[in-house]
Description:
The structure holds two protein chains of two kinds.
Chain A: E1 5-11, H1 16-24, E2 29-35, E3 38-44, H2 45-58, E4 61-68, H3 70-78, H4 81-97, E5 103-107, H5 111-123, H6 137-147, E6 151-159, E7 162-169, E8 183-187, E9 191-200, E10 202-203, E11 210-211, E12 216-219, E13 221-230, E14 233-242, E15 246-262, E16 264-282, E17 285-288, E18 298-305, E19 308-309, E20 312-313, E21 316-332, H7 335-353, E22 358-368, E23 372-384, E24 386-390
Parallel strand pairs in A: 5-7
Antiparallel strand pairs in A: 1-3, 1-4, 2-3, 6-7, 8-12, 8-24, 9-11, 9-15, 10-12, 13-14, 15-23, 16-17, 16-21, 18-21, 19-20, 22-23
Chain B: H1 9-16, E1 22-26, E2 30-34, E3 36-42, E4 46-51, E5 54-69, E6 72-86, H2 87-93
Antiparallel strand pairs in B: 1-2, 2-6, 3-4, 4-5, 5-6
Amino acid sequence: xxxxxxxxxxxxxxxxxxxxxxxxxxxxxxxxxxxxxxxxxxxxxxxxxxxxxxxxxxxxxxxxxxxxxxxxxxxxxxxxxxxxxxxxxxxxxxxxxxxxxxxxxxxxxxxxxxxxxxxxxxxxxxxxxxxxxxxxxxxxxxxxxxxxxxxxxxxxxxxxxxxxxxxxxxxxxxxxxxxxxxxxxxxxxxxxxxxxxxxxxxxxxxxxxxxxxxxxxxxxxxxxxxxxxxxxxxxxxxxxxxxxxxxxxxxxxxxxxxxxxxxxxxxxxxxxxxxxxxxxxxxxxxxxxxxxxxxxxxxxxxxxxxxxxxxxxxxxxxxxxxxxxxxxxxxxxxxxxxxxxxxxxxxxxxxxxxxxxxxxxxxxxxxxxxxxxxxxxxxxxxxxxxxxxxxxxxxxxxxxxxxxxxx
Amino acid sequence: xxxxxxxxxxxxxxxxxxxxxxxxxxxxxxxxxxxxxxxxxxxxxxxxxxxxxxxxxxxxxxxxxxxxxxxxxxxxxxxxxxxxxxxxxxxxxx
Lengths: 407, 94
């Protein structure tokens, strides 16, 4: 029964001779049953030809009623050559793609580095379709480190049918730390100084004072005066050092921002066209089930359908990307819509630029003209209000310095 | 009163050569009959098989015969009655 079997219906008046033949030739029938001149039984595939020959010899009419097991499976495939071809094709493709780069994954969140890594790899021929065993990982890693200044280390490893590039980014030095230029700390906002953290430099404006943008709060020009009394009277010596001012000045200040929204604008509108792209993901290999990506502007939404068996996610999935086409079309806004959009701009500004400050107060004024709406927002903020301003130290004249001991 | 010998010579020989009729019944769902010589009939209510010394009739419902090795068969279905007729008596009736 390894090959499965076939069910038979045999027609006749008497089956005595057939029974003898079954016993005599030791044909292993199953489910032998006679009902009203019809004998039914099942027979293993390997005995079918022998039994059919015997039944013909005995003059019985018969017909095959069912197939089961491997015979049924083979019959199923025999009538569907496309499945066989597809299975063979899939196996061939999987065998081929298992040693070919399908995906190059760069393990970084920095888009600039990702782009540079991809460019370097592309220049060196490491692109999807490249035969993976031909890649010398050490050589490629060296090339990445040599060509990309933004990274300090690169490692390439194979992941399924792709390669993963792991990089360590260079940590940029804080601005000013490594420059030898002396600098002042100047006010970058109009406000009142409320807190001073000073580590180096000469404080020029005391705590509680008001400053306007550009005022020097801490000077990098440090002048020290010494006086000594001699027989000739008081002798004053002064010395000027040029240092890099280090410190932070906090205070309360007001910032005014105007957000304008014209009534006429370009609006993002959906065209109604939707496309769905499918791809088959087997382990980390992603096999596209489409021929080309449609052209246009689309919002994409990815959904991954992966079967789960007993809590374990199977390593294959059907990815479905739903593309919704959109277009920018001119539109005329109402005053309310324009005001809403201006408010949205103000919100984005606050999220992007004011998150390091503490918002004390917020006043808004709305101005409307024939072309659009202006939203003027006055922020009262507390936070850092100084920035560095470098300057060139004048050439030092040796005579300005007193001679050192022993000279 | 007629006296029967415990075992005849042929009976002993058949027993030693395992040529007797062996019938094993499992509940009322199946019966295995060994040393079958012939299948007489096989309907869904009655299956008759011939062994070397008996004609074994198995009555029931939904019976079917499954032969899975030489000279032995399994009768499946709902067995209600098993009847053994000596071949000597059967041939004598004829």
